[in-house]
Design brief:
- By secondary structure, this protein is α+β, with helices and mostly antiparallel strands.
- It folds into two domains: about 190 residues, Gcn5-related N-acetyltransferase (GNAT) (Aminopeptidase); about 170 residues, Aminopeptidase.
- It has 15 helices and 15 strands.
- The strands form two sheets. Strands 1, 2, 3, 4, 5, 6, 7 and 15 form an eight-stranded mixed β-sheet that branches.
- Helix 2 packs antiparallel against helix 10.
- The longest helix has 21 residues.
Length: about 375
Amino acid sequence: MKNTLHFKIYPTTKLLPENWNTLAVDNIFLSTEYLEVLEKSAPKNMICHFIGIFKDDVLEGIALSQFLNLNKLQSFGKRDKCLKTSVRNFIFKNFSSHVLFIGNNMLTGQNAFYFSDKIDKNLALKSLKKASEVLKDIFKNKGQKIHLVSFKDFDVAEISDFETSVFEDYFKFSTQPNMVFEIRENWKNFDDYILDLNKKYRDQYKRARKKSEGIVKKKMNLEDIKNHEKTIYDLYFHVAKNAPFNTFFLAKNHFSIFKEILKDDFLFYGYFLEEKLIGFNTLIKNGSVMDTYFLGYDETMQREKMLYLNMLYDMIAYSINQGFKEVVFARTALEIKSSVGAKPVEMFGFIQHSNSLINRKIDAIFDYLEPKTEWQARNPFKE
């Protein structure tokens, strides 16, 4: 089959083809609206490009790339203070600080690209790999050499597309799983979910709700978000900086820009105690799927009021009551998400280092650098 595919790289959403959204119809995270959010409020150390793949002159594929400069980070994460963490941070700073993702490093799941069924997927991936090489040249010309290129995040079914000679010099890696909560067909409302919990986890739910007495949950509009912007950022940053590993920190206006552009598809809930904002969570409607996004909380209130667990129940309740099919809880806090019924979905990526000697040992290096999390899966439902 003759390869008639070619690609164009766009540095701004203003230049995207008019029919871009016809290909993004099944994934809000590839839509022009979401890409505009990234453009206007991306982390300071991130630069986005948008890739169109054409068959002849018809747009048949769309993709997102993110360049991350880890040298601009003050901290990779403060929770784990040990020799391994120090070595990991040194290696990232000196040998892997410039990373090019084909995909979205701010989300979990296949939000890298979409191809129509009118093009061969293998040829489209080949084009995308060529686009990544052109992007490397673009950054090189700006004096920023790309150390690592990574295609992420794919489940077991999706990775078979990459098992071609085109990606033979890439290392396939697996990171923490994506925690996905499947909504059962017999759950017509949140009460049905509670009824399906076994006694131990129904008691957990009752205990969490009792602890949260006095907290007022409020759906916040754009004006509310702007009025509380400083507190919101402080609550977010507290959680983010205590994560085991970070590659970015959100811009301070990120949530207000998100609300301004995505409107009702972006939900922001504040948790108030005696009229003081002590926590928040965010949700993004993505077709029949609800994606959980960033959250923040006051650590003392979180422990006293079981705030995080209550947020998980609230996100589940909204998603069931509104008729969504599943909730994507993403990575982190695996065990507590498991305790409310989320199941792990193994995710894979592909990575290549620009230094051929390092690339040959990338599997061993990656295993050393990737923060490992020990956790126990839970099943909260009646057998």
